[in-house]
Amino acid sequence: MKNIAILGFGTVGQGVYEILLERREKIKEIINQDFYIKTILVNDINKERDIVDGITLTNDFNIILNDPEIDIVVELTGALEKGFEYISKSLKAGKNVVTANKSVVSAYFKELHSTALENKVKFLYEASVGGGIPIIKPLREEIMLNDIESLQGILNGTCNYILSRMFKEKLSYKDILKDAQELGYAEADPTDDVEGLDTMRKLRILSSIAFGVDIREENIDTFGISTIELCDVEYLEKNNSTIKLLATSTFDKNKGYTAFVEPTIVTNEDYFSTVSMAFNSISFEGSNVGPLKFYGAGAGKLPTGDAVCRDIIDIFLDNTSIEDFHLKESTSLNHEIKGSYYLRTDINEDLISDLKNTNNLEKNETVDNNSILILKNISKFNIIDLLKKYNIDEKEYFLAKIGY
Ligand SMILES: NC(=O)C1=CN([C@@H]2O[C@H](COP(=O)(O)OP(=O)(O)OC[C@H]3O[C@@H](n4cnc5c(N)ncnc54)[C@H](OP(=O)(O)O)[C@@H]3O)[C@@H](O)[C@H]2O)C=CC1
Ligand SMILES: N[C@@H](CC=O)C(=O)O
């Protein structure tokens, strides 16, 4: 018999609980033994919860840590330092851990893998990237057989939901964000979603696995979607295009890596334009397997709960290896990347004349008292330096890469 403790009973915790209860007989049959959710940890013990009799509800983690009958700790709190403490102590106590907490996996990637290895227990985090999409497990399998040199993805359900509805319904960004929060897609602090931090953490996790390189959070250049306005949407729509918050990374073992999270303009014919609402997609190319694309619900109670339950079953079935990731150091090549960009700002003649002098200005249009500038063959960092030079605050412009 196996016993599970669930830490956190919010959107995902409740999803896991419901799936494990609903599929209990089927899972028992597959794993060939009985299992129970023994304990659930929450912050606020006084909140009303719909939990079946026999499960202990607590706000004291030590009850779980010191319970020798608990085999698997499922960490779904969303907290960074507390989450790290819960996971780390559980692994050290010889308990297998499953988590959906990308903040912790990204920030403590190396430490947590080493702790799991030292204590001969499993540490799985399929739900930390792409919600319900199976991506961590297939990627871990493919790196045994392939070199991977680049990956791209829409990795945040909240942003994709907001952008899709802005294009479809012409509603304001703020109104749609409220809906995303109500639907349980957004993080406790939605700044993490809309400023690209959640996507950045997911890119850190995927890139670490895909390339075996230590691409740290601070080396991923991250821009979000919070300054997008309906005038951007209308302009791009007229140009047969849409915007996605895209995460991209590349690795060349002789040169280094690039890693960006940025709003990216894609044409309506591009594959990523078809990924809408809270769906996510990740693509990469393996040297043997060729191109692979993964698509599915990127957030939400049941899709994410499903991914967590797959990890739990893999542990039940002993279907996964315990491995360390010896991430190599490498060099960031982000500053060497040049491309085409869309920039919308207040009209600023000095900025425009500076850009004309550098030959980087391809198009300059005035729309609703804004300048819409199309820039070519330029580094994003040069654009940002220019915006700083003219004291244009980051809340007053919207910058998006054209293509990827
Ligand atoms: N929502 C989604 O679609 C997805 C979420 N994730 C990740 O899954 C994790 C959980 O997300 P979600 O369910 O949305 O979060 P919620 O905010 O809905 O739920 C968090 C739960 O954790 C509890 N909790 C928070 N902090 C602590 C703490 N320090 N100690 C004990 N319990 C705590 C809360 O208790 P109380 O109920 O008392 O407030 C609550 O039950 C996060 O890491 C998130 O990034 C991953 C993929 C998709
Ligand atoms: N807030 C996240 C939840 C899943 O990871 C998102 O919107 O993608």
TrEMBL record:
Keyword entries, A-Z: Oxidoreductase
EC numbers, comma separated: 1.1.1.3
Name the UniProt record assigns to this protein: Homoserine dehydrogenase
Origin species: Miniphocaeibacter halophilus
